[in-house]
């Protein structure tokens, strides 16, 4: 079978990215074949100082060019790159984006079809208030609805706001390229997190229903849908359909509660019965019993355990082992290259204007 080129082959994207959200967005596009030129300040992008593995996890398959965008020469070189590129993605404070001339209004003189994506905390015109991932989770209600009801608010164990915003920014960038028009795309961490609270926000806006925290992360609509303690370990069980319940109840030896309405109305009784049944076997045991029945269930694993049992998601990029692209396309396998050395491609032909 002939190896296809990446679906974004021929697309050039410039990145002025910092830490996670912006670099993650452009890395996903690079994995799909786009040429991504990472424009770094003298001394390098700050995440190079975190660790080599951190930087690699967000910057594989890119080129690196150092430009001092505060200087006339740096701005001149930026203009040359913009003239021969499809898009620029930047995540910095709005004031810095505007001061450095990284907006469509400032760059259209070089290329009126350039797509400029500003990835910020509160919008390009939303001010410079600090907007790190955890701050956004606190400000949008995510932290308040996470955790045990009797415990303090808590945060997920990974950067959910940054990663989600990176994905959204990549989508907005591609949508504007497909339109054939240049222009400004504005994506903020705050707006993305509100968008991802979809049914939670809708329930409050339309029905006045405030989010409630339930033990073990239980779902507000589906019962049973949460974590359960077993004889050894915890099991995630997610029963959304009555057919799932029928199969589970038969395997677990539970009678009654045949409809979703009944299970919701008798939440405590259902959870008591399910907890008692699941305590008779281990999490791995229940997973092995329920999976063949088509019932959504999984034993809780640590990240090392999950990676060891899912080797197909791990790829090699130079000396680094990383999680590969989540987008699988028939006939195309990304060529995973290591992250660039600082200014590695300053003299490469592809980093010069045509």
UniProtKB/TrEMBL annotation:
Task: List the residue ranges forming a coiled coil, or say none.
Answer: none
Q: Which InterPro entries match?
A: CoA-transferase_III_domain, CoA-Trfase_fam_III, CoA-Trfase_III_dom3_sf, CoA-Trfase_III_dom_1_sf
Basic and acidic residues bias (residue ranges) = 331-347
Q: Which GO MF terms does the UniProt record name?
A: CoA-transferase activity
Domain of life of the organism encoding this protein: Bacteria
UniProt keyword list: Transferase
Region entry Disordered, spans:
331-354
**PANTHER family given in the database record:** SUCCINATE--HYDROXYMETHYLGLUTARATE COA-TRANSFERASE (PTHR48207)
The protein depicted here goes by the name: Putative acyl-CoA transferase/carnitine dehydratase
